[in-house]
Amino acid sequence: MAKSLLDSVGEPCTPSNAVLAIIRGHKRSLDVATICQGKMKFFSVLMLAWGLVADVDIESEKYRWMGSARLDFYAVQRIVHLRQYNGSISFVPAPGFEAYGEPTSYSNASEPTNQHNAGAPNQEEPISIRQHGYPGPDINLASMDWRTISGPFVSIWLHNVPWGGEDTKAAPDAKFSDGYIDVIMMRVCPKLSLLSLMSGLSTGSHIKSPYVLYFKVKAFILQPGPLTKDPTKEGRIDSDCEVLARGKGAYKCDQKTLMVYDKLQVTVDQGLATLFSPV
């Protein structure tokens, strides 16, 4: 988030520049995404990932002693042993992106398909959260024009701001408060092309790859599935560096999570949050 704010005015991402931005007291609005599954709600300001990006982010924790190099190191491992996941996505496209996907009707994601699919034999239900506070945006999703895309997928990555790290320009066209989430989607990609594509993350050029679809949405539904080559194993869903859900056979799948590895819904509240900003 600091990188996105400072880069927007051409300033280096340093602690001193971030502190000066706070001292100056300038503010800007920020969109907030509500991730919903049943009665569970999780508010996100940065990103949501499933597939390759989530696998690298979470599974590379075992190499944290390597510092930030752990991400590059483990990304190469995951590309060499590339996983693809079955599943589907549905979304309400932003203006100009109506050609993506195929028409579909709204499928209520307020309840997961399998209430007890908590991703582990000893985990019967997700962690209970007290239902207080902001309920999320009040919009009529059924009246919107929905589109759908089916897998298999290598990666689904939703981003609210341009930068996902100091050297990862995940969504170069993302805006802080345009009311939309940027989607970076990859279905099939040769391994060598994927290695080349990943090297473009530092400049945002990866979105120009023929293997990447990049578009903006107002609302989004993810229906995650198992690995294409091993239906007994599933993945994980990651948001703002928190594991929302782990499927069966996934890394540390014995740990409880906020949500189950099943259908979830994302809606966007335009400009709900406020940030200190350089200008």
By CATH, the architecture is named: Sandwich
Measured by DSSP, the beta-strand proportion falls in 25-35%
What is the CATH level 1 assignment?
A: Mainly Beta
How many domain modules? 1
What's the end-to-end separation, in Å?
15 Å
Whole-number average pLDDT? 87
Global structural class:
alpha+beta
In which range does the helix fraction lie?
A: 10-25%
What's the alpha carbon Rg, rounded to whole Å? 18 Å
According to DSSP, the number of beta strands is 12
Instruction: Give the count of helical stretches.
Output: 5
The CATH topology assignment is Tumour Suppressor Smad4
**Main sheet properties:** 12 strands, antiparallel
Walk me through what this model shows:
The protein has 279 residues and is an alpha+beta fold. It has one domain (29-273): Tumour Suppressor Smad4. Helix content is 16%, strand content 31%. Strand 10 and strand 11 form a beta hairpin. Helix 3 (52-59) crosses helix 4. This is YegS/DAGK C-terminal domain-containing protein. It comes from Malus baccata. It holds the Pfam family YegS_C. InterPro entries: Lipid_Phosphate_FormReg, NAD/diacylglycerol_kinase_sf, YegS/DAGK_C.
